[in-house]
Records
---
Amino acid sequence: MERGKLIADRYELIGRLGRGGMGEVWAARDRVLHREVALKLLDLDGIAQADLPRRFEREAVAAAQIVHPNVAALYDRGIHDDVLFLVMEKVDGQTLTARLQAESPFPLTRAVAIASSVCAALEAAHRAQVIHYDIKPHNVIVTGDGLVKVIDFGIAGFVQAAFTVARSSQLTPAGTPEFGAPEQFLTERGDERSDLYALGGMLFAMLAGRPPFTGHNSIAVVRRKLDEEAPPLDAFRPGLPPEVTALVTELLERDPDRRPQSAEQVQQRLQALLASCAAAEAPTAAMPPPPRTRLMDDTRQAPRPPSPDSWKSASTDETPFTADALLPRRFTNDLDIEFARIAEDTRLSSEAGPSDLAGELARRDCTEVVVGVYAEQPGPHATPENPVYVSIQVFVFPDAATARDAHGYLGDGGGAWRLTIWSARDGGGLAPCPDKVHRSFRWRYSQRVHRYVTVALAYRADLTNDGSIRPWLAAASRKAAVSAGPQNHHG
C-alpha cells in the first residue's frame, strides 16, 4: 500500500502508523464524512480458510456494538483487493508502552486509574459478547487529556482464530506472550477471564516496571507461564496496599476458575482502591482552631469555595446540584460537530421515567435529576437541515457504590429504554417529547463518574427510522454523556 491510495472508493491513505505480521495500520481520510480515521489492513494471503470472510464480518459486527468512551470505536469494515480492512476511530496520544518506557514504574493512583479505565472497556466489551484476547500496553492509548482508549477490540480474537495456536511457530498471534493468559497458548481459545489475566499483567507492569514473566524468547516466557505461578508483586515493589497485591495475584492465577470471574467484579475492587488512594492523598486535616472569642464571633469570614476536584474524594462532594455545575454549555463530538445547550432545569426523579423506574430511583435515594437539551450547531462540518438533539439526565446518589448499582439498572436493566426524552419548550423550559420521538431511531449512552450517573439520548429532528443515522447519534450521545458530570464545576 502507498500514500494516496483510495480504499473502497472512500478512504484515502495518508500515512502509515505501523506494520505488523498480518498487515498495516494507516492514518486515512474518510472522503464521505470528512474526518481522519485509522485504517487497519489485514493481509490474510496464504491462510486457506474458506470461512474467514464470514468470521471477519461476524467479529467486526460484534466489535461495532461496543460504544464506550474507553474503547476506540469501529466505524466500518470491508474487503478491498482481497485485503480485509477495518475503519476505526483515530486516537491521538501515546501508547501505554511508550508511557512506561518514559516513566516506570507508575505512581499507585495512576496505575490503578488506568487499570480501571481498561477494565471499564472490558466490561462494555464482555457485555457485547466480545473478547479482546490481546490486552497489552501497546493496545492501550492515553490521550493528551488523560483519557484511556483500548484499541483492536474483537480484531485480536479474529486474528488469533485464523491460526492453529498449538503450533509453537504461531504462538504470537494467540496473544502477546508477556501478557496473554496461559490457556491461550494451549489448544484452548480462552474466554473473558483471559482478558482479566492480561489486565493483571498490565497492572503488574505499571507498578513493578516489568511484566510478571520474562524470558530470552517468546517460547520461554510461555513455558514459564504454563509451569510456574506468577511472582508476587511486592517482591518487586514493597509497601503497596495488600488489597492491590491480592488483586494482582488473583488476576494472574494460572487456573481461570481461581481468577475473578467478571470484569464487573474487578472494576468494583479497582474503584474501591481508587477511593482509598484519593482519601490517602487528601491533605491532612488542619489543627483545630482556638476557642472562639467575642471578636472572632463578630467577624464574618467569606465562605471557603469548594475545590474543583472535590467530587473525586471518596467522602466529600461539594458539587452543587445545578445545571451549570453538572452540564457543559457546549461540547464537540468525535465527528467535529458542535452542540450547544438550549434548555436546562432540575426535575423530580419521578419525572425521569415510568413509576417503576421512579421507584427504583427513590429506593436508591435519588430524588432529583438535572436535565439538559442540546442542539447540533451549524458549522464547517455540519449544516443540518434536520439537526440532532440530545437529551441528558444527570442522576445523583448518596455515594459511589449506590451510583454503581444504579448504573447497572439504568444502563442495562429494566430502565434501559424507558427514560424520559426531553425537548426544549417554545418560549423556554423543558417538555417531555411525544411518543413519536420514542418511535424514531435514537441512540442512548450512559456514564458514571463517582456518585453521578449521566444518561444521554440522541435523536434527529425529522424523527427518521433510517439506521444509517446511527454514527451521528452514537457520537452525539456518547460525547454528551462523557462531557456531563461534576467535572464541569469549577468552584
Note: The chain has three domains: 6-89, 93-279, 318-488.
---
Amino acid sequence: MPDDLRSPGPLDAFRRILGPNGILTAESDLEPYLADWRGLYRGRAMALLRPASTEEVSACVRLCAEQGITIIPQGGNTSMVGGATPEAKPNQVILSLARMNRVREIDTADMTMTVEAGLILQKAQQVAADHGTLFPLSLGAEGSAMIGGLLSTNAGGNTTVRYGNARELMLGLEVVLPDGGVINGLRRLRKDNTGYALRHLFVGAEGTLGIITAAVLRLFPAAKETATALCAVPSEDAALALFRRFRAADEGAVRAFEYMSGIGMGLVMDNIEGATLPVAPGFEHFVLVDLSASREGAGLRNLLEQVLEAAMEAGEVLDAALAESEAQRAAIWRLREEHPEAQKRAGASVKNDVSVPVSSVPELIRRSSAELVKLIPGSRPVPFGHMGDGNIHMNLEQPPEMPAADFLARAHDIMDCVNAIVRELGGSFSAEHGVGRLKTDMMEAWRGGAELAAMQAIKAALDPKGIMNPGKVLP
C-alpha cells in the first residue's frame, strides 16, 4: 500500500484506493445497506466501500486494520439473522462485494466454476446451465443472494438432501484476512491433504474471520429429466412416511422434499398475487416432491406415480397434483418459495431456523406448534422447509389482534420455547441461516465449554484487533 494512504483522513485514503465509483458516503446512498431484510436491525457506517478486485479489498482491509476501523462485509444483504448489518457505532465501514461479480473460469472437464464473491446465485446457476452443467444450490433469495455471503453462512436451501450445503459445493477459496493478507486457495482439487483445510474455517464464519473474495465451486451434470408434485397429506408422520417411500424407491432421484403447513399455504394464497393451489383446499399438511435425473429415459414420472399410488392406498397421501409442464412445476415451487414473503406481508413473525434428525421432524412440528399456541394464544405456527434434511423453519405469525411490537417483544420467549424442544430432540438452534446478531446469546448454552473456547481462540488468532464483523456469531 502506498505510504500516502496512511494519512489521517481514512475516507480520502479509501477514495484513492477505490476511485470515484468505489465509495459511497452520502446518507441517502448508504440507506439501503444499513438495515437488514427483515427490518430487525439498523446501524450506521462512515462509508460503503465497493472494491472491484481482491487487491482493492486487501488495501481497504489493511487500512482499516491500521486505523482501527471495523468492517461489515456485505453481499446481497439477505440475512435472516442480521449477519450483514452494521451496529449503531461510529468508526465502521460496510464493504460490499457487489462489484466483484465475474466468472473467472469454468471447466466442464473438472466440473468446476471459479467465481468472485459478488456473483449473484441466479447468475451462477445460469452460467452453469449455459455450459450444460448444474450448480445445484437453490433458495428463495437466489435472485439477490451472492456467492460470498452464501459461503460465509454455509447456506443450505432446497437441494441439501441431495447435494449438501454450500460447504460441500466448494473446493477452494480466495480470502482476505483481517490484516490485509490474502490466502490464494483457488485450487480445483478433490484431494489435497496438505495440512489444515483452512478454507473450511471461513465457510460459516459469517465474515468474522476474513472476507471471501472468490471461490471454486463444484458443478454437476444438468438434469435431463424431472418430475414434480404437490401432495396433501393427513399428518406430519405421513409426510415423513412419504419421504421414506421415495428414498427407498430411488434415493438418488430425490432432489428436494419440502414440507408446508395448511396455515402457511393459506398465507401464501391470501398474500401472494397469482399463487394458485393445484389441489383441493382445506388440507392441513402438504409436501412438495421434486425428482431429477441426469439421464434421459430415467422413468421419473412413472416412479412418481407408482410411489404416490402406493402412498394413497396406505392413506399417506390424500390428494396430489403432478406438474405437466415447466410452468406448472414453477407454479408449484412458487407456493414453497413465497412462504417468507407471505409471512412478511401478513404481519410480524418470529423465525426459528432449526434442525433435528430427520426421524424427529414430525415430533418437532407437532410439539412446537402446540407449545407456541399455548405461549401466545391466537398466534399462528407456520412450519415449513426441508423435511428431507431435517431443517424446518418453525416460524410463528403474530395474532391478528396483537400489536406487532408486543409480539416481537416476545421473540426470545418464542425462540426459547422452540429451542427447548429442539435440544431434547438432539438438534441445532441454527440450521442454515447462521447466528448473526440474532442468536449470539445462545452460543454459550449450546456451544459453550471447549467448543466455544476453540472458536474464540481462532477468532483471536486471526483477528486480534476484532475488526471483522463485530457482534456477530460469538457472544
Note: The CA atoms of residues 4 and 13 lie 8 Å apart.
